[in-house]
Amino acid sequence: MKISILLPYKENFSSKYAGAVSLFVKDTTIYSRYKNSIKIFGHTTYKSKFLSNYINLDIKKSILQSNSKIYVDKFLEYEKYLPSDLIEIHNRPNYIKHLTKKNNAKLILYFHNDPLTMNGSKSLNERNELLNKTHKLVFNSKWSRSRFLQGFSKFEIEKDKLFVIYQSSKKVKINFNKKKKIISFVGKLNSAKGYDLFGKAIIKILNKYEDWKGVVIGDEPREKHIFHHKNLKILGFKNHNFVLNNFNIVSICVVCSRWDEPFGRTSLEASSRGCSLIISNKGGLPETTNHALILKKLTSNEVYSKIDFLIKNTNIRKLLQKKNYNNFKYSHKFITNLQDNVRSDILGSRIFFINKINKNTKFKILHITNFNERHNGRLHYNTGRRINNGFIRSGHNVLPLSDRDILKQNKSITDIKGKNYLNEKLMKCYENFKPNLIVLGHADNISNETLEHLKDKNKYLKIAQWFLDPVSKKGPDYKRNRERITKKSNICNFNFLTTSPSALDFNLKNAHFMPNPCDEAFEILSNYNNNCRSDIFFAMSHGVHRGSLKTGKIDQRENFIKKLIRMNKNIIFDLYGMNYTQPIWGDQFVNKISNSKMGLNLSRGEPIKHYSSDRLAQLIANGLLTFIDKKTCYDDFFSNKEMIFYNNLNDLTEKIQKYKRDNKERKTIAKNGKKKYFKYFNSNIVSQYIVNKTFEFKKVKTFWEK
154, exposed or middle or buried, with CB in 10 Å at 0-12, 13-18, 19+? Predict the structure, then answer.
């Protein structure tokens, strides 16, 4: 994960003359749970920097372009090589337009000043554009937010897009007995800050109360307001730590700004150090504390009157000091947590932090496939349920979503196929569940737009799909299957096929072989221990419509089996889904398969490398001696001591006859086959393989990868 913070051009990220923006970024970075992922970009001439994760952007000035544009372009050069997941722009709304032209990262814009006075947010159109191009807008006060919203109707604003996050201050232990009779002013020594009002008032106060002193910290070369008194110290500019430590001993702090302060850091910091406060009612200043004397009029006499009141009323002054201190909650840690929550909401990492996951991490998985609920348990043992069982047994939190059942149950005049309802339901499930991983199994009716939207909400969301049908020109339904798998391949992080990727004649992103899993809850038979009536079991469902055979539908495998029957007249075949025998489902399937010694794994079309239907798992994992075409290359995984490979019809006949005669060897091989299939191809391993590959745990290798 990478978070980049882009400071305003010439913002001084140094203890020497640091402003409010730099202080905010420095403090909230130190306490952030994302601190190891943060890089801060800026431009300053000062050599000393607050933090080591700061990168200074040295630029070459030009008369043809603004320095700000050159500055942003320089930042974008870094982005080309190390792109950010999230970019945070501080106090420069005019940067957004330039950034969005050349970068797709998620954006947060922080306002530290009045939005209506800043380039890029002055007009309603500009602010509307900012709303559309950023993921979140953060304001340093409710007042600043209200300024931004001027001109908008309440219906135009997404409430969860706008946040108020105040400045922060470090709260330290204060000894109120060490508070001195000091009245302080901190800030620019100009009329906008009300320094002229303070100056006139403080001279009168110091003349009246000889035991009190005034301390002024700040400078202003552009304005000259000269005030002299033997008990008035004008210290000029001091670093931030000096200012904070000075507040420890100050009794009264005056913030008498004429201009609308977007917030008022001086007032906040004085509160955190237990000062009594006198503030003007301008901008966001009243939000800094609930325990201050408010200037009703901005005159020197009013400032004098309020200071005089606090000096005369010692108990009230001390009460305000303690209330400010005791009720102060805007610590660095508290504010940083609010900021991190905004980041997490964008990054989608509230569930886990991506840099901390490993092969033992338990994820939230939204598994979307056809669980076949509408057919009353006819396919209760299907592959989707096997994979689902594997996820659960591995300790993951799984939410199953049966897409085709939802489609069938929610058709309407306006939504003929139920697709809109299905995709809306997925969106709602996502919001309620917040998965780390979405797994699709033949979920053709989930739209790419929906998945893209979810990925946009959570950059760290992983999506994988598994596909059971053959994807080869040698196999059936080639064009259709190719289209189905490729439709979502680019939006999915990984694609898992029961066809070897080496057999594909097209490029498929991150394609991996996945064996058909067996499952301890479904494959419960051990036919090598049974006295079975039948020799060979074979069942198929091709040509099936609503659970019954279609009339006139002939499968090429029927011709193969008819020849096999003629060549093996002493063999008892138990066949379903062909020769006018209806297919079998559910528990009936389990009962029928339990009565056969051997099983034929025969798929439609020509043999394809590593391809098989789930029939293979149902046969071998139930302890049937299993025959499979050698051209499937399953001898990459199994030997002839576990599975029987045949070259052609004649070879198959010979081997059937052999194991018809040699009952002992048949049982031994069948037992070995079941044992090995369960050891390496069980649903726990296959399901976790999907997780491991998708989250790129490269050190974890499965049997079939070696």
Answer: exposed
For 92, the token pair is: 């420069």
CATH number assigned to the domain comprising residue 371: 3.40.50
Q: Any idea what the Cα angle at residue 628 is, between residues 622 and 631, rounded to 5°? A: 150
Q: Phi/psi at 255 (nearest 5 deg)?
A: -125, 90
454, 478, 513 - which closes a domain: 513
The length of the chain in residues reads 706
| Cα–Cα distance, 687 to 243 (Å, whole number) | 59
Residues 603-647 pLDDT 10s: 988 999 999 999 999 999 999 999 999 999 999 999 999 999 999
One domain, residues 324 and 411: no
Retrieve residue 380's tokens: 């209760």
Summarize pLDDT for 141-182 with one digit per residue, the tens: 999 999 999 998 866 677 778 999 999 999 899 999 999 999
Answer whether 589's CB lies under 8 Å from 547's CB.
no
Q: Which residues are CB-neighbours of 579 under 8 A, at least 6 positions away?
A: 558, 562
pTM of the model: 0.56
Considering only CA atoms, give the Rg of the chain. Answer: 37
Distances (CA, A) of 53 to 5, 40, 68: 10, 6, 22
Q: CB of 637 within 8 A of CB of 704?
A: yes
The structure tokens listed for 402 are 């049966």
Residue range(s) defining the domain that contains residue 362? 354-513
Element (H, E) at 186: strand 182-186
Query: For 289, which DSSP code?
Result: -
The pair of structure tokens assigned to 218 is: 């700040």
Please answer whether residues 54 and 22 qualify as being in contact, where contact means their C-beta atoms are separated by less than 8 angstroms.
Answer: no
Paired with 163 in beta bridges are 138
CA distance 405 to 375: 9
